[in-house]
Automatic annotation (TrEMBL):
Protein name: Asp23 family protein
InterPro entries: Asp23 (IPR005531)
Similarity-based family: Belongs to the asp23 family.
Domain of life: Bacteria
Length: 119
């Protein structure tokens, strides 16, 4: 996402949508991060209030005045993907509705990376 998203007469920077989605997703058990990051970036995220640039971790488009999102995730091994994806969809839709006030048409989930426990 490089261009501002315009919906319901509001221009929203892609970084703002990424921040809203990231905050919502961090509350879902089983999610390591939005996007694929190395261990150092994850540690900075956990111990800092500064946001780390996310790149194309959250994609957004407007379709018929509704927001269509694609969220790229790194998940922890051991959490079944289907229930995890549904929990993320609900969390993201609720967060966008509460913060932005626009309807979310869909939230597509891409599981791009898996974190395994140390053995």
């Amino acid at each position: 996402m490089s261009q501002e998203i315009t919906i319901a007469g509001i221009g929203i920077a892609p970084e703002v949508l990424t921040a809203i989605v990231s905050r919502a997703v961090e509350e879902v058990e089983g999610i390591a991060s939005v996007g694929v990051k190395d261990l150092a970036t994850n540690l900075v995220s956990m111990f800092s209030t500064k946001s780390v640039p996310m790149g194309e971790d959250v994609e957004a488009e407007v379709v018929d005045d509704k927001l269509r999102l694609t969220v790229h995730l790194t998940v922890f091994f051991g959490y079944p993907f289907k229930p995890l994806a549904e929990a993320v969809r609900v969390a993201v839709a609720n967060a966008i509705d509460a913060q932005v006030g626009v309807e979310v048409e869909c939230v597509n989930i891409c599981i791009d990376s898996l974190v395994f426990p140390k053995e």
